[in-house]
Specification:
single chain, 246 residues, alpha/beta, Carbamate kinase, 11 strands, 33% helix, 19% strand, globular
């Protein structure tokens, strides 16, 4: 099957790398995610990844306590670098050429983020992992995903979570919550649905960049999303519909 998208931005939450743990990284989960990414890579799709750091530290979490918000956010950025290096290692063990690019200068671990260099890596069929968010406090990794996706001209943001799409309420707390198959950016903002923060949704809406939210913990879902299977999650776009790249 021909992939629906030529270039994707895959947003992975840090929590998804925890597996069944309460903290940190489950390397078996990282291996499983890397294996799924390799299957997409084998289709010739150009893959960029933004990884979160919530499994280690989040600037707005309880663990941040009464820390200065900027300091806490910088610590969260370092957590994303740790996750990126773990994912890079898992991918390269599967012979998938990978580069980590960081918005915070850490030359021993990652290249600095330079847009043209990132584009070149993608054109050379290397997976690019963007770490350290936007490099600025007060912005989430969702905002980083929207920003980087636009910078590299991705066809879509695929947001992998622990739930199978966007619901009318938290399905963990409200069993009556219903899943949207498709929804517009405006509805997400008006209903204050907690899929991505408002600034990232607004940025995607301004540039008509579609988002697909799906359950990444279910084996095979990443490749299904890349193949345009609209049954596995929720599509966010201007009118709730999506244009695939030919």
């Amino acid at each position: 099957m021909k992939p629906a998208y030529k270039r994707i931005l895959l947003k992975l939450s840090g929590e998804a790398l925890m597996g069944e743990r309460n903290y940190g990284i489950d390397t078996n989960v990282a291996k499983a995610v890397a294996s799924e990414i390799k299957a997409v890579y084998a289709l010739g799709v150009e893959i960029a990844i933004v990884v979160g750091g919530g499994n280690i530290f989040r600037g707005v979490s309880k663990s941040a306590g009464n820390m200065d918000r900027s300091s806490a956010d910088y610590i969260g950025m370092l957590a994303t670098v740790m996750n990126a290096v773990v994912l890079q290692d898992a991918l390269e063990k599967l012979d998938v050429y990978t580069r980590v690019m960081s918005a915070v200068d850490i030359p021993q671990l990652a290249e600095p983020f330079i847009r043209r260099r990132a584009m070149r890596h993608l054109e050379k069929k290397r997976v690019v992992i963007f770490a350290a968010g936007t490099g600025n406090p007060f912005f989430t990794t969702d905002s980083a995903a929207a920003l980087r996706a636009l910078e590299i001209k991705a066809n879509i943001i695929l947001k992998g979570t622990k739930v199978d799409g966007i619901y009318s309420a938290d399905p963990m707390e409200n069993p009556e919550a219903t899943r949207f198959k498709k929804i517009s950016y405006q509805e997400v903002l008006e209903k204050q649905l907690k899929v991505m923060d408002a600034s990232s949704i607004s940025l995607c809406m301004e540039h008509n960049l579609p988002i697909m939210v799906f359950n990444m913990t279910e084996s095979g879902n990443i490749i299904k999303a890349v193949n345009g299977d609209l049954t596995i999650g929720t599509i966010v776009s201007l009118n709730g519909k999506i244009q695939t790249a030919g």
